[in-house]
Write a sequence for this structure.
């Protein structure tokens, strides 16, 4: 991987040092699947036929990244205050790059809502993190909250 070649660190070490630690994400990390922290929820994939399957076999052998809702708020605060990337790079990843449908675009790693020329989803004083252990579980709750506050 490019990160490993350029930094001399494994991908997980790099993310832990340059993202989790910098953002103060104390309860997040890459954990072995056979020794997860207490209260860790398993993720699930919901299939079109209505069946469900755990996603534990869809993540790396060492374990995937696990984050808490409070740590996601810390992540967004650090990102939006240029503690993870400089202002130019932060603005670049928060720029819509692919128009998905009217009012919705995709940047680098995140969905965005567009109203006119403004990206509205990340220009707010309200921090909300909605977590779910299913593929699309947080979407309905997030949309209901956004409808309530607008």
């Amino acid at each position: 991987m490019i990160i490993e070649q350029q930094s001399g660190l494994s991908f997980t070490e790099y993310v832990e040092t340059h993202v989790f630690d910098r953002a103060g994400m104390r309860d997040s990390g890459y954990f072995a699947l056979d020794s997860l922290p207490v209260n860790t929820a398993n993720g699930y994939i919901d299939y079109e036929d209505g069946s469900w399957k755990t996603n534990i076999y869809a993540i790396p052998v060492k374990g995937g990244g696990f984050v808490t809702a409070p740590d996601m708020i810390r992540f967004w605060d650090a990102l939006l205050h240029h503690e993870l990337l400089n202002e130019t790079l932060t603005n670049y990843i928060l720029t819509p790059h692919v128009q998905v449908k009217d009012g919705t675009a995709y940047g680098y790693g995140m969905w965005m809502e567009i109203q006119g020329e403004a990206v509205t989803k990340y220009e707010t004083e309200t921090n909300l993190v909605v977590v779910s252990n299913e593929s699309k579980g947080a979407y309905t709750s997030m949309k209901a909250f956004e409808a309530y506050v607008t």
In short: The chain has five helices and eight strands. Strands lie at 29-30, 44-46, 52-54, 65-66, 98-101, 104-106, 111-115, 118-119. The longest strand covers residues 111-115.
